[in-house]
Amino acid sequence: MIYEDDKAAAFLDPSFPGKVIILPKEHYPIIENVPDFVVGHLFTVANKISKALFECINSTGTNIIVNNGITAGQTIPHFCINIIPRRENDNINLQWQPKQLSDDEMATVELQLKEEAKNIGEFEKEKKESVKLEKKTEKIEQKDGEENYLVKQLRRIP
User: Fold this and answer.
1) Cα-flanking dihedrals φ and ψ of residue 127, to 5°?
2) CA dist 110 to 105, 113, 114, 116, Å?
3) Could you report the per-residue pLDDT of 99-112, keeping only the tens digit for each?
4) C-alpha–C-alpha distance, residues 70 and 64, integer Å
5) How far apart are CA 21 and CA 14, in angstroms?
6) Are 23 and 78 in contact (CB under 8 A)?
7) Distance between CA atoms of 31 and 72, rounded to whole angstroms?
8) CB 39 within 8 A of CB 66
9) pLDDT confidence of 133, banded at 50, 70, 90?
10) pLDDT score for 152
11) Following DSSP, what letter does each residue of the chain receive, concatenated?
12) Which residues contact 50 (CB under 8 A, 6 or more apart)?
């Protein structure tokens, strides 16, 4: 374990030197199930760990990868972010051969995505738990004839 807080955990993956896996502490199988505020937090952690990889192990690049779904290469049913430190000539090949879409195919996909994007609204925000305050009174002791400094200051507040 290299990092942990109330929402996330990050640990080294033994499959590659310096590779880090970040996952939410609560179970979410794919990114679509993860609340927006958790996704934001996880990627903030990924950003900080990526910076640490540049500094600590002298990587000259990082790949930050989410395999989302079985066809995308996800092998465990828990959302995670993979950070792979990179160096020149490291022999890792993550290249793919893009397909050239026709103008009609591009227009169709664009229209479908624009229509779906209209449904993007407010992002989920973390619900803050209410804080219970205990009623506590404290008597302020004063010296003979001397007024307490804090009491004086409170009288000045409108």
Assistant:
1) -80, 125
2) 8, 5, 6, 10
3) 899 999 999 999 99
4) 18
5) 10
6) yes
7) 12
8) no
9) confident
10) 61
11) --EE-SSEEEEE-TTSTT-EEEEESS--SSGGGS-HHHHHHHHHHHHHHHHHHHHHS--SEEEEE---SGGGT--SSS--EEEEEE-TT-------------HHHHHHHHHHHHHHHTT--SPP-PPPPPPPPPP---PPP--TT---HHHHHHHH--
12) 62, 64, 83
Question: Residue 132: pLDDT band by 50, 70, 90 thresholds?
Answer: confident
Q: Could you give the C-alpha distances from 72 to 24, 68, 137, in angstroms and in order?
A: 19, 6, 60
Q: What is the mean pLDDT of residues 47-74?
A: 94
The CA-CA-CA angle for residues 34, 38, 40, to 5°, reads 115
Burial of 155 (0-12, 13-18, 19+ CB in 10 A): exposed
Q: Are 23 and 29 spatial neighbours (Cβ–Cβ below 8 Å)?
A: no
Beta strand 8-12 pairing with 3-4: antiparallel
Do 9 and 25 touch, CB atoms closer than 8 A? Answer: yes
Tell me which DSSP letter residue 85 carries: E
Half-sphere exposure of 91 toward its Cβ, with a 13 Å CA cutoff? 1
Give the pair of three-digit tokens for residue 47: 């950003």
